[in-house]
Amino acid sequence: MTSIDIATQSSRDEKFRTFALPHLDAIARVARALAGPGADADDLVQETFLRAYRYWHTYDGTSDCRRWLATICRNAYREIFRRSDRVVTLEDHELESIASARVHIAARSAGVDDMFMRIDLGPAIERAIAELEEHYRTVVLLVDVEGFDYQEVADTLEIPIGTVRSRLYRGRRQLQEALLAYAIDAGFRSANAQPD
Amino acid sequence: MWGYLDGVIPSDETEMISKHVATCVDCAAHFDFAAEFLNAVARTSSRRPASDGLRSRVLEALAAESAETKPTPD
């Protein structure tokens, strides 16, 4: 091997450190979104970065590196955990919006419609997200916590953008319902609420 | 509603919805509730960084991979 090969290796390592490693936190969150919290997610993160390092020569340097890494993560998840996307019937998006409006109406009746402004629901939100079915949890985490746009999620998970919307809207509504139930059970009724 | 709040619907629909919400108290309240919900979710600490242990583990694995593939001088 020549000194040129050594220099190429060093350049590759430097570029990987510069462009890929800064996304470690984000990919760790993607892995948790896919595999849930715990050791499986950590294993997935390590495998993702090892694969990215091995196939760094295939990264063209111009596309979004975070998205490239997220796609590797998702492919690794499918292979390691042998998961495949089952078909989700597309829901009517308007129906999901109506259903969410009904959650608000129920929250208002229960005197907790200001709960998101008045109560620290952080831990309850984390628990409720963790309890969502995997397909909904993944999309809610990627969009609403990580800030991926619909197309990024569609590309990362290799699902149609319509499926992203369906899973996201249903996941959000289920999350709202869980938080409403929590707020009612915890007795967070507002002092200004109208009596039943 | 969600598409409007996420800014992913066509501009003519956005304008139509905006005009309606400006005049309909009930719909405005629904949209406010949904927006407050999204803000609360976005603030959740689920957005936490990788642990130091995980970071060290990944860096060590990459270092080992690099060492395995590092060319040796002639």
Can you give me a brief rundown of this structure?
By secondary structure, chain A is mostly helical.
Helices and strands, with pairings:
The complex is a heterodimer of chains A (about 200) and B (about 70).
Chain A: H1 3-19, H2 24-35, H3 39-54, H4 65-81, H5 93-109, H6 115-118, H7 122-131, H8 134-145, H9 150-157, H10 161-185
Helix pairs in contact in A: 2-3, 2-4, 2-8, 3-4, 4-9, 5-10, 7-10, 8-10, 9-10
Chain B: H1 2-6, H2 11-23, H3 25-42, H4 52-69
Helix pairs in contact in B: 2-3
Give the number of DSSP strands of chain A: 0
Number of domains of chain A: 2
Oligomer: heterodimer
Whole-number total of structural domains of chain B: 1
**Please, what is the average pLDDT of chain B?**
87
Structural class of chain B: mainly alpha
**The CATH fourth-level homologous superfamily of the largest domain in chain A:** Winged helix-like DNA-binding domain superfamily/Winged helix DNA-binding domain
Query: What Rg of chain A do the Cα atoms give?
Result: 21 Å
For the sheet with most strands of chain A, the description reads: none
Q: Kindly, what is the distance between the CA atoms of the first and last residues of chain A, rounded to a whole number of angstroms?
A: 81 Å
> Helix fraction of chain A?
over 70%
Please compute the radius of gyration of chain B using only Cα atoms.
25 Å
The dominant shape of chain B is elongated
Q: What is the end-to-end distance of chain B?
A: 66 Å
